[in-house]
């Protein structure tokens, strides 16, 4: 059975939404701060892909901009918090 591209996109969206559930659990109940940061980064990456897939399905360039902005903010936030954990200061 061959599935269409729309069905594959929908299946990928479902898988990504389900994949964010363990990330949410780890952010809320993580044993260490580093675990919470890693889970937040993974959740940010999954959300970027969710926005990108939905932008493709909806043929909306504006949602792709949102996905790119979320990727940048997630990356910068992770780097800032990692630097704070390493050195105790951001700047």
Keywords:
91 residues; mainly alpha
Rg of Cα set: 16 Å
Largest sheet data: none
Please estimate the helix content.
over 70%
Overall pLDDT level: 88
- Element order: H for helix, E for strand: HHH
Structural class: mainly alpha
Number of strands: 0
* Global outline: flat
Low-confidence stretches: none
- List the total number of helices: 3
Could you give the topology of this structure?
Layout: H1 5-29, H2 33-58, H3 61-87
Question: What would a concise description of this structure say?
Answer:
By secondary structure, this protein is mainly α. It has helices spanning 5-29, 33-58, 61-87.
Write a structural description.
By secondary structure, the protein is mainly α. It is built from 3 helices and no strands. The longest helix has 27 residues. The protein is flat and about 55 Å long.
